[in-house]
Design goal:
Elements (H helix, E strand, L loop, with lengths): L2 H19 L8 E6 L2 E6 L6 E6 L6 H11 L7 E4 L5 E5 L3 E2 H4 L2 H21 L4 H6 L7 H19 L8 H9 L1 H12 L6 E3 L8 E4 L2 E4 L6 E3 L5 H12 L6 H11 L8 H29 L10 H13 L1
Antiparallel strand pairs: 1-2, 2-3, 3-5, 4-5, 6-8, 7-10, 8-9
Helix pairs in contact: 4-10, 6-11, 6-12, 8-11, 9-11, 11-12
């Protein structure tokens, strides 16, 4: 369907669903987010607003995944009020303000230290749901698919970057091909810790956490995958450092890493966990590259929205393994 058709259909479904749930719509339904991979509508009601998210092909797993998380781990994600019976659409409750807008300074860091252990606890418990999660179509970024997918992404970069001036150079392409043994070694060392693959958000930053009455929830699971859990630290720590102007190795950012690791403290020593977290942070940039690759292939021209394009994501991997 084109955008106009999706909008009309989403509005009709929203009105019917709200009526069936006893929710009274109190004003016009407003489209507040539009990207090739998803569209979000804000629905004013006589109480708090509710929201409809319509997901594209690369994020089609998100509604059912979010519903599973709401069912199994209430309080960690926004409340899912309804799923469309045939489309990857969901109606969710108000979740609050993004923590980047709600907090700054020490309070911003405190909010992160509160949500990260809860998220890690979910990852531990979600191992028993991995089969169901993959069944939703959630991407598989476990070791073997990750390595194979990355090789495919590197090979496909010329077609994606086309005539961009910032495309990968031949020296960079050689470096990307040659880092494969390093990636395999890092994955092997991470696996040796014995921590199971599980659900991983893959885009857990301060724009994807909401806070209401002091309680934080994680939303926007469209980039989620199944991988080693520690790969999540790539985005979280990079964005937190950028937002606070701290270096990644300064105490406030290290404290976020340690808050995330606390629920894993029975699985290994502090030293082993910290070493594994560093491996996860580095490998996590490969996972992000695969997420970007899927989006770039599915929606032609989308990489032009991003400074550095797809090559920029590959360069970040080179920096981690060069």
């Amino acid at each position: 369907m084109d955008i106009a058709s999706v909008t009309a259909a989403a509005n009709a479904w929203t009105r019917d669903t709200c009526r069936s749930l006893g929710i009274t719509i109190a004003g016009p339904i407003e489209q507040i987010h539009l990207q090739p991979w998803s569209s979000v509508f804000r629905v004013p009601t006589t109480r708090d607003a509710v929201y409809v998210k319509c997901c594209g092909p690369t994020q089609a797993h998100e509604p059912r995944l979010t519903a599973l998380l709401h069912r199994e781990f209430p309080g960690l994600v926004t409340e899912v009020l309804a799923l469309h019976p045939t489309q990857p659409w969901m109606l969710v409750a108000e979740g609050g303000m993004k923590i980047r807008d709600a907090y700054s300074g020490d309070e911003f860091l405190r909010a992160w230290r509160e949500v990260l252990p809860r998220y890690a606890q979910m990852q531990r418990a979600a191992t028993q749901h991995v089969g169901e999660i993959l069944g939703f179509g959630t991407p598989d970024h476990r070791a073997m698919p990750l390595v194979a997918g990355f090789a495919e992404a590197v090979a496909d970069e010329p077609a994606l970057s086309a005539d961009r001036s910032d495309r990968i150079t031949e020296d960079e392409r050689r470096a990307l091909v040659e880092l494969r043994p390093k990636l395999n070694d890092a994955l092997g060392a991470l696996a040796a810790l014995g921590i199971e693959d599980t659900l991983q958000h893959d885009d857990l930053h301060h724009g994807n956490v909401l806070v209401h009455d002091g309680r934080a929830v994680v939303f926007d699971w469209g980039d989620a995958c199944v991988s080693h859990p520690f790969l999540t630290l790539a985005v979280t720590l990079r964005f937190a450092a950028a937002a606070t102007k701290y270096a990644p190795d300064e105490d406030p950012i290290v404290a976020l890493r340690d808050a995330y690791l606390e629920p894993w403290s029975d699985r290994a020593s502090t030293k082993e966990l910290r070493e594994a977290a560093e491996l996860g942070r580095r490998i996590g940039e490969v996972s992000r590259t695969l997420t970007f690759y899927a989006v770039a292939r599915a929606y032609p021209g989308v990489i032009d929205m991003y400074p550095g394009g797809f090559a920029g994501s590959l360069r970040r991997v080179i920096r981690q393994f060069g």
